[in-house]
Give the backbone structure.
Amino acid sequence: MTDRFLKTSVALGMFDGLHLGHIEVVKAALGFPGLTPAAFTFGGTGMHPKTDFPENIMTAEMKFSLLKGMGVKIICAPEFESVNNLSAEEFVDEILVDRMNAGHVSCGWNFKFSKNAAADADELKKLCAARKIGVTVVPPVMVGGAPANSTAIRALIKEGDIAGANRMLGRELTYELPVTEGAKLARKLGAPTINQAIPADCVPPKFGVYKSRASVGGDGYAAVTNVGVKPTIAGGVSKPIMETHIPGFNMDIYGQTVRIELLDFMRPERKFDSVEELKKQIRLDIKGACS
């Protein structure tokens, strides 16, 4: 429960992509004199409760980090199941009034809340007005003639249109994941890689090769990243992994968390007829991504 003497301005939303539309909702909660910027969202296993939106664009940890970087001081992120049966009035009273001590709230134009998502932004305005809580409803942010939204971003990621997804996100699609130890086969191909397992609950990018940027210990590097199951290598892998080659980088960083930003899609993953053919293509990929 928020300190009752600490009144807040609360950004409301799933914030599952923190795309350009979400960013405007958060901005609308900032800068109110006497109100501490806060966010009410979801995290952990309940980050994506709807069966039609099962895949995360980012981890909960990254979402919280980005929110704090924007100036949010308090984050309330319960499991979805703990609040999904609240009525609209119960949500306002128990969450916004009692838990968040809200003096103002902001939400997107398509915000839904309460049991079965039965209440919308207009209902929120009515309930908050009766409790002397201000409300800002943020209109859609248009990108290329369409509103920025997480459903569209997921589709673009799966299609390999990373540039399109990045335009709606307002930043590069980013993964911050620990480096795992692989079979070191890439070294034999002349291109050692940083291997990272894509979380099972994250939307998988289209299998293929991407121009990327890697950040290791605060330093940024031009890189090339392959996402897939290594079809040319005997046995491949059972789950998709991300392999990133950084030209000239040979440090042992197993276990460290490395940031990878996908910049653009270069080509789909394919099975080559021979390892030599694969080695030749890897050289071309590195030249195309890093030169």
User: Anything to note?
Assistant: The CA atoms of residues 123 and 241 lie 44 Å apart. The first strand starts at residue 8 and ends at 12. The helical segments are 20-27, 60-69, 88-99, 121-130, 150-159, 162-169, 185-188, 275-290.
